[in-house]
Structures are given as C-alpha cells and as structure tokens.
Amino acid sequence: MSTPSHLTARRSAPLNGLVRAPGDKSMSHRALILGAMATGVTDIAGLLEGDDVLATARAVEAFGAEVERLGEGRWRVTGQGGFKPPAGVIDCGNAGTGVRLLMGAAAGHAVTTTFDGDASLRKRPMKRVTGPLADMGARFDWQAAEDRLPVRITGGGLTGIDYEQIVASAQIKSAILLAGLNADGVTTVTEPERSRDHTERMLRAFGVEVGVVPMGTGWRVSLKGGQALTGTAVSVPGDPSSAAFPLAAGLIVPGSEVTVEGVMLNPLRTGLFETWREMGADLTVSNRRMAGGEEVGDVTARHSKLRGVVVPPERAASMIDEYPVLAATAAFATGATVMRGIGEMRVKESDRIALMAAGLKACGVMVEEEPEGFTVFGGPVRGGATVTTHGDHRIAMSHLVLGLAAEDAVTVDEPGMIATSFPDFIELMRSLGADIAASE
Ligand code: S3P
Fold first, then answer.
1. How many angstroms does the Cα of residue 25 sit away from the middle of ligand 1?
2. pLDDT band at 114, cuts 50/70/90?
3. Among 203, 249, 285, 421, which has the minimal tally of Cβ within 10 Å of its Cβ?
C-alpha cells in the first residue's frame, strides 16, 4: 500500500482484542549499537523494525559491523570490537536517539564521521551531547550552523569526565557513557532525576562493569574506559511508549477492552500508567514475567471515566514521550489535567507542547499553554479538524486516537512518519475495531 497523504480517524464502536506492542525503540537502538561495538555475535529478538531503528542498523553497518536480518524482528550483528571509518555520511533520518548515541560511540574511536538527519532532526539541539563529548577530547566541525546537524566528528584519544546533567536525559547520559568506554580513566554522569536505564542494563549484559549510586532523586553512573564488550543475545520487550496508543483508545472509546501483551514495565518508563491510574483509569497488568532483563506484562485498558490530575513534574523523565497521548486522553476527562516541568517536550521530533495545544484546540478542547508545560481542560471533544503534525509520529498517533472518540472525524497529515516508531500502527488499531482510513 502506498503511503496516503492523510489519515482520518472516526468515532468507533467499542474496541476489543489482544495485540502485541512493537519492540522497544530505545532498546532496539542500543542493541544494534552495543552489538556493533562488541566482539562477536549479538542475536537480537523482537527488534523494532521502524524507520528510526533501520537507520541505526545501516549506520552500524557503515561503521564496519556485519548486520543480517534473520526473520521478523530477528537480527544478527557481528561486531569487530570497534568502529571502522565509514564511507559517506551517516544519515540517522528522524532519530534523535540514534544520532546522539552513535555520536557518543563514534567519539571514542579514531574515525572522522559526518552525521546528518532529516529536516526535523536538523532542527534539534546537538550541543547537549557534543559539549560533553568535546570536553572528553572529541572534535566537532559544524557543517551548516552551530548546534545543528550536519556535523563532522573526529574521535579518539578521549579522557573520562565527571559530568553533571542539568536535565535528566537518557540520550545525553548514554552518549557520554558510550564514549567513556573508549576513554582513559573513569567517566561519570550525574542526573538530577532518574532517566531510563537501558544503556546501563544492556552494557552489563555485554560484560561491562557499570557503577550506579543513588544521589537524591537522581543517580551517579560511572564506568571505567577500556572495557571490552562481548556479543550476547538480546531480547527486546514491547515498547510502553507505543503500547500507550491502543491502551489510550481503550480508555476513551466507550465499551472498549484492549489488552497489549508483552509490554515492558521498567519503572523508569511507566509514568503514564501511574498517571492514568490516578485519573481513575481501569488499567490492569497480568502475567508479569521477566524478558530480556526487564519486567514485562500484559496490560489491559477498559473504558473509564477519567478525571483531571496534576502530574508531578518529577515524573517527567519516566513519561516524557507520553505527554501527547496523555493530553489526548485528558481531553475526555472531567476537569483539568496539569502537565508542568516538561520544557524538554519542545525539543523532541517537534515542539510537542505547541503542536498538541494547537491540535486539541482545533478539535474544540480548551488548552492553556505555558513555556514549560500545558493544561488540558476535559469536556466534549468536537473533533472535525485536520491537524498539522510537522512530521511527528507521536503527534499523529495521539490525534488519531482522539478522533476515535471525538464527535466528528480527526485527520492528520504526514502519516508516513508513524513508521519511524510504530510501522504496524494502522493495521493493529484496525484489528481492534478502530475506524482509521486513508484520506486525501
Ligand atoms: C530516549 C530518551 C528520551 C526520549 C527518546 C528516547 C532514549 O530522550 O524522549 O524518545 O532512548 O534514550 P531524552 O533522553 O533526550 O529525554
């Protein structure tokens, strides 16, 4: 099927069924990158085959790893124990995680690499990562404008640093740690709040010793340079950030009951589930088990009468990608849902505060925007709008979910971008009974 120019979601009959979430995007990037840095074979099961991750697969191949697709979600990476000089530009597409982690990994090697991305990625700040990498000794040559892709990096000869982050960011932490693997001495990163810890966990699975010490509300992570990675098997559980969309639809479409199986339940990723429960959501987890070093479970959402809440700002790191879909569900709640301390949302694939506020307002929802947050006032959701997504997959999916319970249809542009994180989104939603169709 060719990609339509628009997608339209219409008020749907109750959604019902059991679906499987696609593989976790954060873990998929990391499995490919660590596999490429390691010596030997890394067999990955459950890899997300979204455009972002496929760009990372091509990148690690360009850095000298052998990459094979063995079957659906099953990939084999044979690492050479380090990165070789790539031929040509490394194009990371839309993927902020891909480019930032790869820049960290490349910085530790004596190679010169030019990194680039699509129009959205070219707008995103890169100095948050290149700053600390430069402190470690990597050199950067901005090709167009300071702080923006494309950038040429010359790595190698790094020295470990002790870095204190201002905002909790797993991307920054991970980039520094990956560079630190090939730096002299110890590299330490301190975070003000705890961000997702997939890099730390996965490094250990590859045989690296990583020290983690709690520090107030955050932690201090350190590793010694010169440690070798050994290829291993990685099983990627379902992505809670993607599972959020069918579950949100289950909560807001009357009469629904939707189960997503195999969802990763790492507490640093489940802030949205906690928030929904505080809003009165009927959200249950069954069949808790361990998979790929992470706790997973089957999550069921039933249609619920939601009420507005104040989301604690310190929860932001554990649900930073989920505020758009939270805002969509908050539109159906009674009262106001206050989301603050989320200025980071403005530098994601789009300015997500501005686009959610604009999209919801176009659908008849009252929204108050602030520099570092927004408040959604629940009530009747009229819909009947075409929403500009600026190519942001989560803005598109959030509005399509909203359209399933709005009075009139909701249309989004650039639906092809949904494939960056959730290639089977439309088929999966339709299998539950969602009325989502191509439109012009
Ligand atoms: C990610 C970290 C988050 C998140 C992104 C994935 C990761 O970004 O928004 O989608 O895999 O490390 P920040 O670390 O910049 O908050």
1. 10
2. very high
3. 285
Nearest-CA residue for ligand 1 atom 4 is 321
Beta pairing, strands 210-215 & 183-184: unpaired
Q: Convert the pLDDT of each residue in 288-298 to its tens digit.
A: 999 878 999 99
pLDDT score for 291: 85
Looking at domain 6-23+237-439, its CATH class is alpha beta
**Tens digits of per-residue pLDDT, 229-238?**
999 999 999 9
What residues flank ligand 1, with Cβ below 6 Å?
Answer: 26, 97, 169-171, 174, 195-196, 320-321, 344
pLDDT at 44: 98
Catalytic residue among 24, 116, 298, 321: 321
Determine whether 147 is an active site residue. Answer: no
pLDDT of residue 178: 98
pLDDT for 45 equals 98
Q: Which of 25, 196, 272 to mutate to test the pocket of ligand 1 (most atoms within 8 A of CB)?
A: 196
Amino acid at 142: W
The domain ranges of the chain are 6-23+237-439, 25-235
Residue nearest to atom 11 of ligand 1 (CA): 26
Query: Which superfamily, per CATH, for 25-235?
Result: Enolpyruvate transferase domain (3.65.10.10)
Q: At residue 345, what is the residue type?
A: M
Extract the runs of DSSP E, i.e. beta strands, from 199-268: 210-215, 218-224, 233-235, 257-264
Answer whether 6-23+237-439 and 25-235 agree in fold. yes
Rounded Cα gap, residues 266 and 197, in angstroms: 9
CA of 387 to the centre of ligand 1 (A): 25
The pLDDT value given to residue 89 = 98
As a whole number, mean pLDDT of residues 29-49 equals 98
- Which residue has the CA at smallest separation from atom 5 of ligand 1? 97
SS (H, E, C) 57-126: HHHHHHCCCEEEEEECCEEEEEEECCCCCCCCCEECCCCHHHHHHHHHHHHCCCCEEEEECCCCHHHCCC
Degrees to nearest 5, angle at CA 260 with 257 and 264: 140
pTM as predicted: 0.98
Q: Is the pLDDT of residue 1 over 90?
A: no
Mean pLDDT throughout 352-367?
A: 98
d(CA 381, CA 359): 12
Q: Closest residue (by CA) to atom 9 of ligand 1?
A: 321
